[in-house]
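S.,

As promised, the inosinic acid run. Input:
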Amino acid sequence: MKAEGILETVIYAENLGRIRPFYEDVLGLECFQATVDRQLFFYCGDQVLLIFNPAKTSVARAPGPGVPPAHGALGAGHVCFRAEARELDRWRSHLEQAGIAIEADFEWPGGGRSLYVRDPAGNSVEFAEPRIWNLPRKERTLRGEKLVVASHNRGKLKEIDDLLKPFGVETVMASDLGLPEPEETETTFEGNARLKSEHAAKAAGLAAISDDSGLCVDSLHGDPGVYSARWAGPSKDFALAMRNIEEKLQAVGATTPETRKAHFISALAVTWPDGETRCYEGRVDGTLAWPPRGTRGFGYDPMFVPEGADLTFGEMEPSAKHAVSHRARAFKRLVDDLF
Ligand code: IMP
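Predicted complex:
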């Protein structure tokens, strides 16, 4: 016989009320059982994290059905959460923003990075890449998955659907499931993409894909960036948004191709029902034309001329846009990883 995997990770804390917000709010774990003063149980991927108050659980109770033997430990324990390399930077800033001091952050000589903090009970909490133990990343695929497309933007829905079609993935739209659109509160494309896919996967109990994208204009310090949709106002008026960009470019004297450089970014996030999220980013560089040209595509397409082309995305055949677009480039990374 060989044990197949670890199911529970257990640490101890005397004041459960004080540590609960750390695991629930800061680390985002779902608390599925809380017994006052005795135990907190959280789901974490395909494991559970159990936190017990040793003052209660080290006291032996009369044996009987459903009564586990006593256990308990005093002093600082240790738990380590798996995180991919690119997630560690996000964890670091997320923890810092939550006011949690980083105790250590280093590369192991054999490869892989670890980040350490303390929970409010003093337990040592680590975030580390699986490769520190020579463990592979979990094998993931979207083959055969039913996938929720977590977007309410019709233009993006069509592009994502077109990109997924050749892989035989069955898609269902978030709006068809009646899922509400979460507010995009993050300040990065990746952050907002994750927020949307995580929200949809949780609500639907299915794998979900989302895209957060936008146009970044060099002479406007990267604006409109993550606010690209918002610049079009509640009526999604992109003629207005494009005029707004043009007025700002004129105001800073950006009239030459060199000063009218811009790029689109697309961050695609996929979340599986067990909570794991992977993110893939793509970018296309170009310049901004005026007046807008073409009626194809959506959003800022009529203003954007990709590098090496004369036509705007709004004038191109969809297949020509797909050949170079930020979304297609992000998608290529996703396909390499998941199909
Ligand atoms: P969000 O990702 O839903 O927040 O919105 C991103 C916004 O960026 C869209 O509403 C578009 O205005 C713009 N955008 C993103 N990708 C493209 C594209 O491929 N062409 C034109 N505009 C885009």
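The domain at 8-133 is CATH 3.10.180.10 (2,3-Dihydroxybiphenyl 1,2-Dioxygenase; domain 1). The mean pLDDT is 93.

- D.
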